[in-house]
């Protein structure tokens, strides 16, 4: 049995094991270990490979971004800044039909600029936006669907853990990916708002109870003092984190530390932080960090194994022989990502599929920053699709209204998933949506 | 315990890097060795945290199907669990064997990270932490196997600890 066959079998075995519930990093490490053992005929090299990946993969300054951005995200939520963004957006859009839905989208987009984890957005807005929409007579299905749909903005609009992880595996600049995510993120925000407008005007019965759609227009304007008190901390954080990276003042790792520190000061100033709570946040940060780094290490073992098996090169030749165009290859990639997204979490998918395709795409000279944005959007669509849309499960478990079922959330999120697919196609056809800002930045140098 | 050290360490890391940036901008006097300290810290935080992460069920897995198997056929489900966790134990042993000789080698030969004359730190502590972390994770896998075997006979797990749910207070409403 040659390396190629072992490579193919390993992929099938891997998906099978992940699907029946084995821990994803254990699966990746196990497959790599067994694969290398069979190819090299001795466990010694396989063991050396496992150790090498465990000791060396993450021992890099760049990986400091992960705990620091996670910490920042949790501190920002604790400081109550999620609610602030929603209050501002809701008040600004109070005179618009379907405004509460749009406010959820816009607030998510703003919140995404100060946090990097979309699961955080999903939890925060399930607690804030859903009750508000229900109170004004919006339909439960629409309310949860909007929250699920817009939570994916968290991973597209920088800072974003997914963009960071892509940058780490594709060896691209985190800063460039952060810039490239802005265009598609704003476009998606706009498309979500248009979608809500279309639903509110065209199919009002899907959005709210009859006559309830305009109830929120009676609200008064938020006092200027309150408005600025809520907005300024958000602006400061955006300036510290994204401003610092874009201006080239410091590295993403340092931006994460500075952002976490500023969020820490805000949470303290608002008296939202007790010693106990800070401790819980740190433990939670540790768990998320360990989970992500463990996955990254295991994926590193797996890509080393693939390298030894020669699968990517041979697969490249096979695909080269089939004369697939770049468009066809990308279509296959996106379809694979979306299918995987229905059963596996985003980070795992990216770590499994991306290394292989990076090699296959090498002859085409694609812009990897653009490719990263495409990957993140495609992976995030999976968060909304049954049977295992992660965002949907998070919302279900956070939801206080137990009469809204899992199926309701999936149905409610479906129009948003389709809109994402539409935006993904736009980004595929017009790469400039992602790369234009990066080119402008490069022109400044 | 190690979980507590790792969590506290993240906070120190945040302060340290922030301090470095502040000193660099305001006093034009950056701290030396922050880069190396961060590199060492990442490995340390990871391996000290890993066993606890597994214990509270936070290591990534797709548990929808497995959850249903466990509910419908508990004996078979727990048997699968023994296999899953057994693979974990085997892998930890496979990492610890080279890990042990490598940390000794780093210790004996005085390997270090950083640049001579600027900032250096011996390499063996992080390699020892890797061995310790993998050992603890291996032990946690063994404990999970024991729970699976108990589950096959309808006994409850030895002890149970849930992850702290920080998100519950995501609104920041205070206590």
List the helices and strands and how they pair.
The complex is a heterodimer of chains A (about 450) and B (about 180).
Chain A: H1 3-20, H2 24-40, H3 43-56, H4 65-78, H5 81-92, H6 99-112, H7 118-135, H8 140-151, H9 153-156, H10 161-170, H11 174-180, H12 182-202, H13 204-207, H14 224-246, H15 252-269, H16 275-309, H17 311-321, H18 326-341, H19 346-361, H20 368-381, H21 390-398, H22 406-429, H23 432-444
Chain B: H1 2-26, H2 34-55, H3 63-72, H4 74-109, E1 112-115, E2 119-122, H5 124-152
Description:
The complex is a heterodimer of chains A (445) and B (175). With 445 residues, chain A is mostly helical. In chain A, 77% of the residues lie in helices and 0% in strands. Chain A has helices at 3-20, 24-40, 43-56, 65-78, 81-92, 99-112, 118-135, 140-151, 153-156, 161-170, 174-180, 182-202, 204-207, 224-246, 252-269, 275-309, 311-321, 326-341, 346-361, 368-381, 390-398, 406-429, 432-444. In chain A, α6 (99-112) packs antiparallel against α7. Chain A is globular. The N and C termini of chain A lie far apart (52 Å). The model of chain A has no long low-confidence stretch (mean pLDDT 87). Chain B starts with a helix and ends in a 23-residue tail after the last helix. With 175 residues, chain B is mainly alpha-helical. Chain B has a two-stranded antiparallel ribbon with strand order 1-2. Chain B is 70% helix and 5% strand. Chain B contains 5 helices and 2 strands; from the N terminus they run ααααββα. In chain B, α3 packs across α4. Residues 163-175 of chain B have low confidence and may be disordered. Chains A and B meet through α1, α2, α3, α4 and α5 of A and α1, α2, α3, α4 and α5 of B.
